[in-house]
Design a protein that fits this description.
- With 185 residues, the chain is of the alpha+beta class.
- It has a domain of 84 residues: Arc Repressor Mutant, subunit A (Orthogonal Bundle), CATH 1.10.10.
- Helix content is 46%, strand content 12%.
- The strands form two sheets. It has a two-stranded parallel sheet with strand order 1-4. A two-stranded antiparallel ribbon has the order 2-3.
- The chain is globular and about 65 Å long.
């Protein structure tokens, strides 16, 4: 799968905006093209505001116009996420590191908030026979080739399951893995 790497301060500022992140999340969860009105109804802002933010997201190439449809004489525009991974360029581009860290922190805060909400409000009522998600943490000892192999396995799995299919449901995730520097005594 192709990757869009956000390189400029302007690209990062467009991407990090909380409203735009909400729009991207809404499109990801829906798994299908949506109109600004449909998105607005989901996230609780005006359709004109959604249209403004979609224009910004179009400018950095993370969403695209999927199709237009005439509905009661009005042309409805349906937008979708581009079928590409989005990289904020951590570790690749030294410039604009503050914006890259802001994107990272905002993304992790949103995921942690969603997971916490799930644990507090939905997990107690869940069916014990179903998989409910979890947080796994720990330490692995990997040789460089094994670290590349793990990353390739994860990337392949993600790419295979990025598209909504019949019977599937949306799962949000965050995977963070990095080599730990040995502490100095």
């Amino acid at each position: 799968m192709d990757t869009i790497t956000l390189q400029t301060k302007q690209d990062l500022d467009i991407f990090v905006n909380p409203r735009r992140q909400s729009i991207l999340r809404c499109l990801r969860i829906a798994g299908e093209p949506m109109t600004p009105k449909q998105i607005a109804d989901q996230i609780g802002i005006s359709a004109s505001s959604v249209q403004h933010h979609i224009g910004k997201l179009l400018s950095i190439g993370v969403v695209e116009l999927s199709r237009t449809e005439s509905i009661h004489g009005i042309t409805a525009r349906f937008y979708r996420l581009v079928p590409k991974s989005i990289s904020i360029g951590l570790g690749v581009h030294a410039e604009n590191q503050e914006q890259r860290i802001a994107v990272l922190e905002n993304t992790m805060a949103q995921l942690l908030s969603g997971f916490t909400e799930y644990c507090v409000h939905k997990l107690p009522d869940a069916n014990p026979a179903e998989q409910h998600g979890d947080m796994l943490s720990g330490l692995l000892y990997l040789e460089p080739d094994k670290a590349r192999e793990l990353y390739a396995i994860i990337q392949s799995f993600i790419q295979t399951h990025e598209t909504k299919t019949a019977g599937s449901s949306a799962w949000e995730f965050a995977l963070i893995a990095y080599p730990v520097q040995k502490e100095q005594a």
